[in-house]
Amino acid sequence: MIMANFEQIFATNVFSDAEMQKRLSPATYEKLHKVIAEGGELDIAIANEIAAAMKDWAMENGATHYTHWFQPMTGVAAEKHDSFLSVQADGTVLSAFSGKKLIKGEPDASSFPSGGLRSTFEARGYTAWDPTSYVFLKANTLCIPTVFCSYSGQVLDKKTPLLRSLSALSNAAVRLLHILGKTEVTHVYAQVGAEQEYFLVDKEKAARRRDLLYTGRTLFGAKPPKTQELDDHYFGSLRPEFKRFMAELDEELWKLGIYATTEHNEAAPSQHELAPIFTEANRATDQNQLTMEIMRNVADRLGFQCLLHEKPFMHINGSGKHDNWSLSTNTGENLFKPGRDPYNNTQFLLFLAAVIKAVDEYQDLLRISVASAANDHRLGASEAPPAIVSIYLGDELSAVLDAIMRGKRFNSAARERMEIGVESVPEFAKDTSDRNRTSPFAFTGNKFEFRMVGSSQSVADPTMVLNTIMANALCEFSDKLMRSGKDKEAAARRLVRTTLLKHSRIIFNGNNYSAEWVAEAEARGLCHYRTAADAIVHFEDEKNIRLFEKHRIFTATEIRSRVDIMLENYFNVVKIEAQTMLSMTRQEILPAVYRFETDLCELIAKKRAVSLPDGHERAIAERVAAGADGLYHAANALDEAIAGCDAVRTAAEGAAYIRDTVLPAMNDVRAFADALETNVGKDAWPFPTYGELLLH
Ligand code: ADP
Ligand code: MG
Questions:
Q1: What phi and psi, each to the nearest 5 degrees, are found at residue 196?
Q2: How much distance in Å is there from the Cα of 168 to the middle of ligand 1?
Q3: Across the chain, what does the average pLDDT equal?
Q4: Spatial distance between the Cα atoms of 272 and 81, rounded to a whole number of angstroms
Q5: What is the pLDDT of residue 122?
Q6: Which whole number is the average pLDDT over 487-513?
Q7: Substitution candidate for ligand 1 out of 188, 283, 447, 466 with most atoms within 8 A of CB
Q8: What is the CA(637)–ligand 2 centre distance, in A?
Q9: String of b and e for 140-151 (b: at least 16 CB within 10 Å)?
Q10: What is the position in ligand 1's atom list of the atom closest to the CA of 334?
């Protein structure tokens, strides 16, 4: 039904290239098109014409308001709506929207996180139009993607560093390609496809759990008798409401020009995955933010709650996001495409070697880019790679690199195998073996797939890090090749070899989930920051500050502010969880247990009165009483741990305190509560259980 009018609805809510071409003068369209493709500035006359055309388009489609749409460090998109209404001197009203309003906004943004970059009395922040991402319509509002910075120009958002990294990467890649003789290339784009996992649960049931309401994850819940074992059967009888959700979601996303193809994940009950077709990284990032928002809205409309949390349920797989990343030239060449004969494809090898060098040198930054309290529950658990970054290349490509490192020619029999591997890229990608799927950073035919990203995170941070570290490696390569002799091809091959010899420790094709890998990775000297609290503080290591300053992504001050924001976020997220846990324990679980105990004791008393044996009832009563006693004491200890939060003096101290004191106290409370859940009557339990939420 929807597919039939797919062409009519696609991108109808986007001020798309086609719409621009239709509504702008040829000169203005030309100029805007160039800025979208290559960056640059637009003068005010042009901005005025574009603003007027946007307003007309938006109003024809029912809009009355516009907003600068930006991505502050909260990770959630922010907007402030203004109407197109303009009152004239004589009191008459008009609709108006100027280039000035399109280009710049001044939200009173004092309560967004700034990590000390801006005090509340300096409330002013600026938003500035990012013409490289399309303007779109949401209900009655024209949404203009913007960057967000402070009065003094310091970055306060996730888009600005991403845009900076994209141009650093393009410049570095173009320079290297020119050295290799490919002078027709003028721009290199990073392309991203962000696969999104999520859970759908019944809205009414979810609303009866304060943990889901306040924290997005369950803080209690015993393992139900059935979880993932039979999920295939479960999905075999997909409820019509799920299908309806996916159809409505697809339709809304298509209207926004998002190439979504929904499918359900086999991993956990009620868990699904949405994979869009990849696009330019900045747009893909905006689109993923929008996708998450629309998922929540559509779910709500249809009686579901969409859970985007990284680990909504213990004992059951959590949700991640795969940041599929590749590089493409303006001439349409994918720089990670190995071709028929990768051994002799020097350009491919050089870009591959650059990735290997970049990821090895900045493993820590990739780890940090996905560090959050929520993702800590996933990384290193059984469904996601450990918090150790390594690269999977597959046997075939590894054999090519081995030959290069050993200074041997790659023999044709092996190359035969390689050709098969590479030429069957779609099969290869789909047929991912378990070993492949365990890798945090896997080469999948013509792209890399960074799989450590958490489901609720923006792909802006990990993509920005990938772009920056890649730009850095490419710059070093260019510098070296510039200093080499005339034969650039030979120099490039030597460079590939020395790079591989130095950085091949980062390549690992085995099972990343195994305990042996953790030991081996540590023996190889790979970075292993187990928790977000361990990782985040290293963002401001000297080498990282040097990197970001060199490529003009961040100043040292901006990095320090981000460290504080991330640490404070970690602290606050867990503190809210701890407080929620405490109140649920004291106000819901313990009272429910007392009611169950009362019933049991009354039964025992009545049995005694008529001289009936009460042995097993007593045993249960004793077990439950012991559990309640344990829970009571664990809750008191958690209360004390929470009180201790007030004593921390710095963000780093706070995060360490949460990691070492609050989280362990929460684990104790949970252990007692979950054991009680399985020992008291089902009707007595105060909120829906895992089974009721996921399987009913
Ligand atoms: P898999 O099944 O291994 O996850 P797919 O081919 O289905 O691989 O792709 C998954 C995601 O990767 C999709 O979002 C897709 O658009 C994206 N993708 C495919 N090719 C590229 C590419 N060259 N660059 C970036 N993303 C890509
Ligand atoms: Mg994938």
A1: -120, 125
A2: 24
A3: 90
A4: 33
A5: 59
A6: 95
A7: 447
A8: 42
A9: ebbbbbbbbbbe
A10: 23
Q: Which of 414, 425, 418 is nearest to 397 (CA)?
A: 418
**Ligand 1 near 127 CB (within 6 A):** no
How does 326-360 read in b/e, with b if 16+ C-beta sit within 10 Å?
Answer: bbbbeeeebbbbbeeebbebbbbbbbbbbbbbbbb
Rounded Cα distance, 50 and 47, in Å? 5
| pTM summary value | 0.93
Nearest atom in ligand 1 to 426's CA: 6
Number of the ligand closest to the Cα of 263: 1
Q: Catalogue all structural domains in the chain, each as residue range(s) with its CATH number.
A: 6-157 (3.10.20.70), 165-220+229-415+430-554 (3.30.590.10), 570-694 (1.20.120.1560)
Q: Which of 670, 646, 671 is nearest to 215 (CA)?
A: 670
Q: Which of 71, 159, 156 is nearest to 113 (CA)?
A: 156
pLDDT in tens, 168-209: 999 999 999 999 999 999 999 999 999 999 999 999 999 999
**Ligand 1 atom at minimum distance from 430 CA:** 2
State the pLDDT at residue 109: 63
**For position 659, what pLDDT does the model report?**
96
Residue 385: predicted pLDDT: 72
Most confident by average pLDDT, 132-146, 322-336, 374-388, 436-450:
322-336
For residue 296, the one-letter residue type is: R
Residues 144 and 15: their CA atoms lie apart, in Å, by 10
The two structure tokens encoding residue 20: 């621009």
Query: Do residues 634 and 665 lie in contact, with contact meaning Cβ atoms separated by under 8 Å?
Result: yes
Burial 448-463 (b: 16+ CB within 10 A, else e): bbbbbbbbbbbbbbbb
Angle CA(558)–CA(562)–CA(564) in degrees, nearest 5? 120
Find the radius of gyration of the CA atoms of the chain.
Answer: 28
Structure tokens at 14: 């986007």
Residue with tokens 């401001």: 540
Q: Which residues contact 86 (CB under 8 A, 6 or more apart)?
A: 93, 94, 95, 96
Nearest ligand for residue 436 CA: 1
Distances (CA, A) of 484 to 477, 487, 489, 493: 11, 8, 10, 12
